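During the reporting period, our protein records have gained a C-alpha cell line. A sample record is set out beneath this paragraph:
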Amino acid sequence: MLDVLSKIMDAFGAAIVVPVIIFFIALLMKVKPKKAFNAALNAGIGLTGFNMIIGAYTPIVTPAINRMVEETGVNLRILDTGWQATSVVAYSTQVGMIFLALGLALQAILFVIKFTDIFMPSDLWNNYSFMLWGSMLYISTKNLWLSIGLMVLSNLYCLVFTEIVAKRWSVYYGYPRCTMSAPHHICSVPLAMAMDWILTKLGANKVRWNPETLQDKLGFLGEPTSLGFILGLALGLAGNFMRLNTLTGWGEIMVIGISTSAIMAIFPKIAGIFASAFTAITDASKSTAKTSGGKDRVWYLAINDAAGYGETATLLTGMLLIPIVLLLAIFLPGNQTLPMVDLIAIPYMIELVICISNGNIFKSLISGAIWCAGGLYIITAVAPIFTQVAIDVGVNLPEGAMMICSFAVMTNHIMGILFLIFMTQNPLWIGLSVVVYIALYAFVRIKKEAIHAYLENMAKLEEEAGIVSEEGAAV
C-alpha cells in the first residue's frame, strides 16, 4: 500500500492531486458538477502555470547564483544541494513512507472532527518535510515509535501555526479560503509575528518599502516589471562580475533581467486563474451556512507554496536576501553551511514573513535574514545526520562536499529544535515539548478570532503609515 501511495504521488503530483480534491470538496458542498469541474480545472491550470514559470526561471538564474557563491572563495563543510535531495531521502525510507499514509489519515481525521480548520491533505506532497526529520531520527536512534511521535507532534505544531496565519496569508496573497501550510516554511510564524511587533514598535512600518509606495515614488521605474528588470540586472551583474569583459556575461545579465521582469508580469495573471478556482467553494460555504441557519465554519484549504512565490514583494525580498544570506554564511561565527542551490527558493521561505508584514520589504528583509541566520545554525547542527541518511539511501555526494543539506527545507527552527529534543530520548524534554504544544493549541483555539483580528490590525497599521508618509508626516 505504501509503495502504491508513493507511486501515485510521483506519477500525478500536486497539479493533479489538488484539483481532484477540490472537485470532490465542491461536490460535497453541493456545487454543480460543471462548476466544480471548472474550479478543479482552473486549480490545475494555475498550479501547472506556477510550476512552469518557476521551473523555467530557476535554471536561468541558478548559474549566476552558483558563480557568485564560487567566487566568494569560501570553503564551508556543508553544501546546500537543494530541496530535491531531501525529498528523495524522505520518500526512500520505510519510516518516511509509514508517515505518508499515517499523515494523510491523521490530517483528514483532525479536519473532519473539527480539531483543526485546516484541510492539510490537499498539500500531501509537502509531508516529505515531516518524513525527512522522522527518517533522520530513526537512523540515529533505531526507535520507530519515537520517530513516528516526532513526525506526528511536528505535524500538530504546523497545524497550529497554519491556523494562526491562515486568514492573513489568504487575504494578502488573494486566494479565498486558502492558505500555505508547507511544514518547512510555516514554522517561521512565531518569529515573523514577534519581529513584526518589535519592528513596528521601533517605527519600521514608517519605512515605506512596498511595491505600491515604490511605484508612487519612482514612477515607471517603480512598476513591478521595471523593479524586476532592475533587480534581475543587479543579480546578473553580481554573478558575472568576473565576466564583464565578455559578450556571454552581458548576455546572461540581460536574460536574467528580462526573465525576472517576466515573472513579475506573468505571475499575477496565473495567480488570478488559480484564485478563481476557490470562488465556487467559498460561495457554496456561505450559502450552506445561510440555508442551514447555522454558523459558517471558516476553514482553509492548504495549497502549494508556489502560489505565493512570484508576488511582487515576495520575489523582490527573496532576491535581495540572496547576497545577504551569503554574507551571513561567510561571517557568522560557527556556521559551516554554504547555501547554494536553494538560494533561488528564498521567496518560498519568506511568504509568512511577507504576509505578516503586509508586504513591507524593509521589515521582511530584517525578519527574513534572522530566520535564515538561525537556519544556518540548525543545519550546521543536524547536517552530519542528514548526510548519513542520504548516503544510506543511495544519494551521491557532490565532489568536494563533506556534508550536504537543503537550505530551504532544513532552515526550520521549530522542527529542528523538536528533532534535537527527541534525539536526547529524554522523557522529560519530550514531555515538555508536548505540554508546550497543548498549551499553544488551547490558546490558539480560544483566541483564534482575536489573533486573526490582531494580524489584520497590524496590516492596517502598515497602510495607515503609508497614508501618513504620503502626507509628509513621516519619513
The chain has a mean pLDDT of 83. Strands lie at 78-80, 118-119, 178-180, 300-303, 337-338, 403-405. The longest strand covers residues 300-303.
